Amino acid sequence: MKAIYPGSFDPITYGHIDIIRRAAMMYDELVVVVLINDAKHPLFTVEERVEMLKETVGSIANVQVKASSGLTVDFARKEEAKVIIRGIRAVMDYEYELQQSTINMMLADEIETVFLLARPEYSFLSSSAAKTVASYHGDLTYFVPSNIAKRLEDKLSK
Ligand code: ADP
User: Is 14 within a domain?
Assistant: First the structure.
């Protein structure tokens, strides 16, 4: 079975990497997709985010990385994927994810959203926390791999 894991990945963190590894074990194929949403004012361009994902998880045999604009369910249909993977950290994620997945259910009832719980060691981790720490030149060891830390530092020093 094929699944997609959509997100902003601005940038990818250890929390995302963990979800990708776990989902890749559950499904035959996993497409990680950077969904283009300019309303979020991302720090990195779509191309940079795709590149960072490829550098980090591109070596997992059944994982592909893509970018897409438009609705998540339209991308899932185009890919012929029946599952959307999302990660849940705390109650604050639940409300947002419940709303999104209910909308997706109304748009495409043949597609299921599957939630994976964040591991406790990553439950505090978010792309925005990594960006905040990086903007004050803090230690990113527990947030992102070193190649991503370097990209964050380069970007924020400009
Ligand atoms: P979006 O803008 O779509 O929320 P994100 O890149 O912030 O995109 O997150 C993509 C998905 O990964 C979301 O389902 C989010 O809840 C999940 N996620 C983010 N950080 C973590 C983490 N530390 N552990 C587990 N899941 C996470």
Answer: yes
Mean pLDDT, the chain, rounded, equals 96
Alpha carbon of 56 to ligand 1 centroid (Å) = 16
Q: Which domain holds residue 82?
A: 2-124
Number of the ligand 1 atom closest to the C-alpha atom of 127: 7
Q: Using one digit for the tens of pLDDT, what is the confidence trace for 101-131? A: 999 999 999 999 999 999 999 999 999 999 9
pLDDT tens for residues 86-102? 999 988 889 999 999 99
Of all residues in the chain, what percent carry a pLDDT higher than 70?
A: 99
Question: What is the residue-wise DSSP string for 117-141?
Answer: EPPGGGTT--HHHHHHHHHTT---T
CATH number at residue 34: 3.40.50.620
Ligand 1: residue whose CA is nearest its atom 25? 118
